[in-house]
Design goal:
By secondary structure, this protein is of the alpha/beta class. The chain has a domain of about 60 residues. The protein has seven helices and ten strands. The strands form two sheets. The protein has a six-stranded mixed sheet. Strands 2-1-4-5 form a four-stranded antiparallel sheet, with helices on one face. Helix 6 links the parallel strand 7 and strand 8. The longest helix has 18 residues. The protein is globular. The two termini are about 25 Å apart. The mean pLDDT is about 95.
Length: about 240
């Protein structure tokens, strides 16, 4: 079966004045559809840049970056906009919730351009909060929620759009270990239930060990990979 994500010799550099910093170099790997994948490595190794490429927030300088049948390196701007809207769900380390909106309204906002009716948007937002165990907090503002609860709202916001690809950048990075473990379990359960492909950047080796596959990066390259045997059961 053809991989869902295929990166071949991807290059990406950033320029500040006359100085160019290479973030990704000859990056090559593939990921299966419906898998949960962890990206690990030291700070500055290119992990977050990889997510911006997969999320079509940044275009590679060279190589091929395919998600499904779309080559992100060669698609036009209109196609990439539709891809971000219809295919991708983002979960960020800093939650990025709108402080003046309730949990329900924050989730509902992500559906503004979905084509759903107002009634269906509300129903989808309620369902998504139920999925992350926060239906009873729907009317709370972000300041009335703990960090872990805010992150679960951001996960609900991401999955409300029914994405095919979920990108999570250090989703537990601002949380204590107990809250982080709860958020990760929520993310993993949703990935299983919805069958989405998930790519998660993390510094936590215990969380990475529970992924189907772990990609280790250094200096913009893949330096190692490991996978959970098919017969294994993730705790």
């Amino acid at each position: 079966m053809r991989p869902y994500i295929e990166l071949e010799h991807v290059e990406k550099s950033y320029r500040l004045g006359t100085v160019a910093t290479r973030a990704l170099h000859d990056l090559t790997f593939s990921l299966a559809r419906g898998s949960f994948n962890a990206i690990v490595g030291p700070s500055g190794c290119g992990k977050s840049t990889l997510l911006t490429v997969l999320g079509a927030l940044d275009r590679p300088d060279g190589g091929a970056a395919r998600v499904g049948d779309l080559d992100l390196a060669r698609a036009d701007a209109e196609t990439l906009t539709a891809y971000r809207r219809e295919t991708i769900g983002f979960v960020f380390q800093s939650y990025n919730l709108l402080r003046s909106l309730t949990a329900l309204e924050n989730v509902e906002m992500s559906l503004a351009f979905s084509g759903l009716s107002p009634r269906d948007r509300r129903a989808r937002a309620v369902e998504s909060l139920e999925r992350v165990g926060l239906a009873e907090m729907a009317g709370n503002l972000p300041r009335q929620l703990s960090g872990g609860q805010q992150q679960r709202v951001s996960i609900a916001r991401a999955v409300a759009r029914r994405p095919a690809l979920l990108l999570a950048d250090e989703p537990t990075g601002n949380l204590d270990r107990e809250s982080g473990a709860r958020v990760f379990s929520c993310l993993l359960d949703l990935q299983r239930d919805l069958g989405v492909t998930c790519v998660m950047v993390t510094h936590d080796p215990d969380l990475a060990a529970r992924a189907d596959r772990t990609i280790r990066m250094h200096d913009g390259r893949v330096v190692g990979e490991s996978a959970v045997p098919p017969a294994s059961v993730r705790a």
